Amino acid sequence: MKKIIGILGGMGPEATAYFYELIIKNTKAVKDQEHIRVIIYANPEVPPRTDAILEEGESPLPYLVEGVRILKGMGADFIVMPCVTAHYWFHEIMAQERVSFLSLLDESVLYAHRKIPELKKAGLVSSTGTIKSRLFHGAFEK
């Protein structure tokens, strides 16, 4: 049986929908039954990530952990989270839940280095929270 992707979404409902659309468009499937199995948990009530990073709002961590637990309970084999800013809590989620979790930060860095092996600097268009937390800086420094 094929692995099931769990999408932890709702943090930018359009980002969740777009991410799923990319999965569909990049799957080499001729008929419906050849597509990848996906479970989407979208909770738009997750507190604003940037506010929490700037210490101006509630932490979304409990909501993120709850979403991971729900996806695991529904049978997801691994989790992806289309919201880049929410990756600020990636390691804290992993500390609370034993689950395979694909990091969009790490995957973005790997993709960039595959495309441009000599890459030394890259521009970034992102949320204030992503920039202030230096999420990509840490990923590129690995």
TrEMBL record:
Keywords (A to Z) from UniProt: Isomerase
GO molecular function: amino-acid racemase activity
Stored Pfam families: Asp_Glu_race
InterPro entries, per database record: Asp/Glu/hydantoin_racemase (IPR015942), Asp/Glu_race (IPR001920), Asp_race (IPR004380)
Protein family according to the UniProt entry: Belongs to the aspartate/glutamate racemases family.
Protein name, entry field: Aspartate racemase
Upper lineage: unclassified sequences, metagenomes, ecological metagenomes
